[in-house]
Every structure is written in C-alpha cells, then in structure tokens.
Amino acid sequence: MSGADFVYGNTRLRARLPALLGRQDLERLLTLDGDGLIGELSRTPYAPEVQAEAARRRMPGSLHRAITRHLARSLLELRSFYDGPARDVVDLLLRRWDLHNLLVVVRTHARGRPDQDTAQALVPLGGLDQPTAAELGRQREPAAAVERLVAWRLPSPELAAALGRGWAAYERDEDLPTLEWRLATAAFESLLERARELGGAADPVADTVRREVDLRNVMAVLRAAGESRQDGESLRVVPAGTLPRAALAAAAREDGAADAARRLASVPAARRWRATLERFSHEDEDLAGLEGGLEAVATAAARRELRAGDPLGAAVPAAFTLLKELEARNLRIVAEAATGGDVRALADELVTA
Hints:
Elements: H1 7-16, H2 23-29, H3 34-41, H4 47-54, H5 61-80, H6 84-94, H7 97-110, H8 116-121, H9 130-137, H10 142-152, H11 157-173, H12 176-198, H13 203-224, H14 245-252, H15 257-265, H16 274-282, H17 287-308, H18 315-338, H19 343-347
Helix pairs in contact: 4-5, 5-6, 5-18, 6-12, 7-12, 10-11, 11-12, 12-13, 13-14, 13-15, 13-17, 14-15, 15-16, 17-18
C-alpha cells in the first residue's frame, strides 16, 4: 500500500469543509417549521434529495429519507475522488456501514416489521443496498431473509457467516442483544483484519474503528454498571478496541454509572475522554448526554485532522466521513424538532465541537 495516493481526494475534501453545518447553522434550523426547513436545506448541498422528497409531505419520514440519501451520495462521491490502493482504504472506511445495515434487517425482521422499515432505515453503502433490502423485506418469515443474506454472503462473507451461526442460537433463545453483540464483534474484527492486510496506509481507518469500539464498550459498561450479572464473564463488550477488557469489567462491577465513569476516567487508554467522564461522575447527567459529550470529543479531533492532519494520508477522508455522518445525525434531530418535537430537549441532543 506504499503507492496509495490521497493528495487529490484530500484536496477535494478540504475544499468541502466550509459547507459542513456548524452549531450556529443547526441552532438556526431548529427554529424552523417543516416548510422552512425544506426551504433552507434546498439552498444547501442537500437540495437534490430534499426537493425529491418534498412532494411526499410525509414528515419527518421524508426528511429522514432525504438526509440518508444525501449522506450516501456524499460518501460515494468521496470514494470517487480516490483510485487504486487509496480507494481500497476508503472502501474499508465505508464498509463500517455493513454492521448498521445488517442490524437494520435483523431488527426489523426479528420485531415483525419488515419491508418499509427495512428499506427506509438502510444506508446504501457497503455490501447492502436499497434494492437488496426491499427484497429482504418481502420475505415474511425472518428465517427466509436470513437465509438469503447467508446465501448471498452479504453484507460481507464474514458477517454472513456470523449471522448464520448467530441466528440459529437466536431462534432457540430469542436473545436479540446477544445476536447483535456477536455480529458487532465479527464486523469490527473483520474490519481490523482487512486494515492489517492493507498495511500502514489504512492505519487511520483502523484507528477510527477502534475508537468506535471504545465508545460502544464504554456506553455498554455504563448502562450495565451495578447489575449483579456483570461478573466479567458475561460482560458483552467487543474485543477490538483499545480499552482493556479487565478495566471494562472492573467498571461494570461498580455500584452505578457515575462510579463506573470515575473508574474508566483513570484508564490510560481513555485519557481522551477523561474530562468528560469525570464531569459525568460528579454531575446529575443522563447517559444520552454523556454519549453526546464523548462523541463531541471525537468530532473535535476529526476537525483538527481535516485542518492540520497529514495531507498525504487517509486521516483526511476518515475525519471528513465522521463529520458528515455526524451532520446527518444532527439533521435528523432538527427534522424531529421541525415536525413537532420538543425543540429545547432536542437542542441538547445536538453533538458539535
């Protein structure tokens, strides 16, 4: 991978940085109703998708679809900026969506809501696309949808194999969280294995994956803290991050989330989150607020990478991807506010840095 050339693509992405929506933009959009939001977004890069959905007038669903489609288009355009080995690295970055898409299919079928929910929640990136999801949704029995995924080896051969093994256990015990944990473990481990195969050029993507795993594990531990069953053996964490399992298990044995956060704040691998975790441990804050604070740390780091990171490497597309994904998350919150949600409460859910 020594021949990976990121210069042209990185230059294009840095030129797009000013178009990303900041905190002031989002807070202004929060004051608008549905029509006003459509009008404002029609003057941004979201215009093609928003205008295509505007005629449906089924909000917030139509806005959510527009946001998802714009995200997919933007990231696929990002991919087109790179060739050869550099594109292989960017493809690995986009394969992070395989787990999301697979979980959408599994959850909607497991809960008896196939077809429409599946297709609308799918982000057409990675190994699954909207036509495939629609086909899966037409299968009225969950086992039929799973059989197709396994047979088609989608969204990746590794995840299809993990699904085949995990679904057999799910049919016996109907333990959806355990199935999701098994799929997440397979997804993250396969991403990191592919990053190792691609060599040093993929290190920024591997770092992105490990940070995702760390955040997932921290939140799992904080939600589980105080439960007697968390004895270290039954703790459901993904073993692909930088936080040691022993430290996560010790935190899970604390009496509550605040004590668990205080213990995690002392772990060297969690130093980037130390201030946020310590603040949570001393304040009466909910876990959703803490998760937003942890994501804000990642957002700030991504912005620094775009402005001052290695212009010749994959840190730039990795950072831009994180910021674009976060923008989509924030706009979904704005869409909820524009269609009757609690503006003040939803404003607290925005994550920016």
